[in-house]
Amino acid sequence: GAVVSQHPSWVICKSGTSVKIECRSLDFQATTMFWYRQFPKQSLMLMATSNEGSKATYEQGVEKDKFLINHASLTLSTLTVTSAHPEDSSFYICSALGLAERGQETQYFGPGTRLLVL
Amino acid sequence: DQQVKQNSPSLSVQEGRISILNCDYTNSMFDYFLWYKKYPAEGPTFLISISSIKDKNEDGRFTVFLNKSAKHLSLHIVPSQPGDSAVYFCAASVGAGSYQLTFGKGTKLSVIP
Q1: Chain B neighbours among A 51-90 (CB < 8 Å)?
Q2: Rounded to a whole number, what is the distance in Å from the CA of A107 to chain B's nearest CA?
Q3: A117 close to A92: Cβ distance less than 8 angstroms
């Protein structure tokens, strides 16, 4: 159980276009989802916390108008990179907060989306 | 400034031996620590966690030790198996709700058959 999917797994786009990444919890409901970004040989950096039915909370330094997050249902959150530029090229990973076997809250991660902006 | 540090980018261990992955943190507010395992092209998978009220937590072949005074934790895998070869991330948070995780850069473990 506790599977999180992401779509697409990779995307190449031209500079200036917008890209939407979907994150789905497949077998559980998640009121809270998280979006991370990982640059090569760096740690996962939390971008924003997404709560179902409310506005996302962005980490310091993350532009909310550039990275639009929508968490419209208990199983789906989307991240839209608007007017993407080459410096936005990165590995984007989402996670969903669920309950582990021992009842503790745990983040379950999706497989990630690799974005390359030309 | 990295609040969670994994100073060894890689580690090689013989199959059957013990693997010890280390993690240091600087933020004394952290009170919940997790280890994640990540295979290439996949998202991190939760392995084991520990609360600051404990100094050890064990789950099968995996044991996490926490030394609060040294702000240091370690993950022991024994015996190591080739399938354990992956990147291991240490993460920390304030509170046990797994919110606001701060990750280290990861350590790539290679278990040699």
Answers
A1: none
A2: 6
A3: no
